[in-house]
Amino acid sequence: MALRRQCLPHAGLALHLCLRGIHLKPPHVGLKTYNCVVLQQRTIQSITRAVGVGLHSGQRVEITLRPAQPDTGIVFRRVDLPQPVDIPVNATSVTDTRLASTLSQGGAKVHTVEHLMSACAGLAVDNLYVDITAEEVPILDGSAASFVFLLQSAGIVTQNAPRKFVRLTQPVEVREGTGVHEKWARLEPYHGYKLSFEIDFHHPAVDATGQRVVFDMSEHTYARDIARARTFGFTKDVEMMRANGLALGGGLDNAIVMDDYKVLNAGGLRYDDEFVKHKILDAMGDLYILGKPLLASYSAFRSGHGLNNKLLRALIDQPQCWEEVSFENEKLAPKGFAKLAPAW
Ligand SMILES: [Zn+2]
To answer: Which of 56, 111, 278, 305 is catalytic?
Structure first.
């Protein structure tokens, strides 16, 4: 993807300005230091592993998270194939969005990447290798909490390179359907990262909870407020999916399951509005597939993996609506960004 770059230096003056290949560099360029926690790129400190089952395949799978150099991004590596295949994370490598987000490289695939991607987005992890021994990321407890635990246990460290954000300068929107089938997702300029999601499920267990939630990275804490929200499903859908060879690894241990009237999990919900919070969790994972963190306000009505990916592709197709920025002066960064997600 061709990116425009504008670095925001001290005193708000443009230090570098690269527009369509023209690099303008004023003569007073000095040494750059990046000492701000979330304004530098981050990776993990040590290798960490987890074993689980794929939600849809039911297959045992092991993932190994490894540190990666600055500007590597997040790379899935299928280590079970005769020749290991790297599957880079970007919007155009998404090849299937039914039920989960699938990335492909040649014939190699990795399904259900969104919860791990969400944890990376929420903790501001930029660079990571994910070695995986099967076609699907383990579902673990159905939320991003286990991935948060793994990443934090490995230790999150800053790297000597600035984080590069994609900052919206004009709105980008995608829509599907009309009337009761209408759904949409939108990105708008915002000095920070905010997500607002509304669901429209008519079910006794969902009606009793919030249908809309707003999460602002500057004000809320991902690990506490979003990461624990689990995926959810209905028993009748699960039966149908299993008949089609899906949801084979799903159950009360890794999803909120409802019959026609109520939540069947003995422990109930983790948040009062866990359903819509999970949609925020998914959206954060889906949007992080862009490969860079967003500075934008995302809002969505009944969106899902497919529409989220369509939004990313619309964004890439409209380079006049965004620019790439990094910050050398934390005072110019969005409020709270220097304090997000402690690295330890
Ligand atoms: Zn999900």
So the answer is: 305
In three-state secondary structure terms, 44 is strand
Give buried/exposed letters for 139-161 (b at 16+ CB in 10 A, else e). Answer: bbbbbbbbbbbbbbebebbbbeb
Which residue type occupies 178? T
Based on the residue annotation, tell me whether 305 is a catalytic residue of this protein.
yes
Centroid of chain to Cα 235 = 27
C-alpha 96 – ligand 1 centre gap (Å):
14
Tell me the pLDDT tens digit for each residue of 282-291: 999 999 999 9
Cα(42) to ligand 1 centroid in Å equals 24
Angle of the 145-154 helix axis to the 114-122 helix axis, nearest 10: 50
Distance 115 CA to ligand 1 centre (A): 6
Domains, in order of start, for the chain: 40-162 (3.30.230.20), 165-327 (3.30.1700.10)
**Each residue's pLDDT tens digit, 244-276:** 887 788 888 899 999 989 999 999 999 999 999
* Ligand 1 centre distance from Cα of residue 101 (Å): 9
pTM here? 0.87
Confidence of residue 126 (pLDDT cuts 50, 70, 90): very high
Q: How confident is the model at residue 3 (pLDDT cuts 50, 70, 90)?
A: very low
